[in-house]
Amino acid sequence: MADKKNSGGKAAETIEGSAEEVKKKKRVSPMEFLMQVRSEAEKVSWTSWKETRISTIMVFIMVIVMAIFFLIVDQTLRFAVCAGLQLSCGPAGA
């Protein structure tokens, strides 16, 4: 990549990086890879079972609350549109 930099009023063209500088990654065996994964997983700070359970319950509660909220909004809008346009929005069999 060529950049022009101003240094003291003079434009200087510099080339940064080169395709030849790409580092080749060391290949590891599948067993070595699994050992590295296990080592990294041990460094992670995992939440406790109690925290996980509480968070899961909170998610379920929020899903129920949001489902009820959207049901109310949907029914309100349905009623408003049917009343405003004077449509028969009852059940299909009626």
Give the strand line-up of the largest sheet: 1-2
Gyration radius, to the nearest Å?
31 Å
Mean pLDDT: 81
Biggest β-sheet: count, sense, barrel? 2 strands, antiparallel
- Shape type: elongated
Helix content: 40-55%
**Helix-strand category:** alpha+beta
Give the termini distance in whole angstroms.
Answer: 72 Å
Order of helices and strands: EEHH
Unreliable stretches covering 5 or more consecutive residues: none
Beta-strand percentage? 5-15%
What keywords describe this structure?
53% helix, two-stranded antiparallel sheet, alpha+beta, 94 residues
Topology:
Layout: E1 2-7, E2 10-15, H1 30-43, H2 49-84
Describe this protein's structure.
The chain is an alpha+beta fold. It is 53% helix and 13% strand. It has a domain at 49-87. It has helices at residues 30-43, 49-84; strands at residues 2-7, 10-15. It has a two-stranded antiparallel sheet. The longest helix has 36 residues, at 49-84. The chain is elongated, with a radius of gyration of 31 Å. The mean pLDDT is 81.
